[in-house]
């Protein structure tokens, strides 16, 4: 799944470590999500969206094959 997490993090001037701490996850989790190697749980996706005051689908973009 593609995402704009890195963009949202940069817009809020946060490091991966700072965002991870605020969300209660590890820095490695943030790195993996940003690289598209890990799809967060629905709970974590909503937590991220709430943190940035955005919608889940503004941050996470499903691939075309996933949307079917």
From TrEMBL:
Xref: PROSITE patterns: HTH_CROC1
Family annotation (Pfam families): HTH_3
Keyword DNA-binding: yes
Keywords: DNA-binding
Superkingdom as given in the UniProt entry: Archaea
Keyword Cell wall biogenesis/degradation included in the entry's annotation: no
InterPro entries xref list: Cro/C1-type_HTH, Lambda_DNA-bd_dom_sf
Name under which the protein is recorded: XRE family transcriptional regulator
Source organism per UniProt: Hadarchaeum yellowstonense
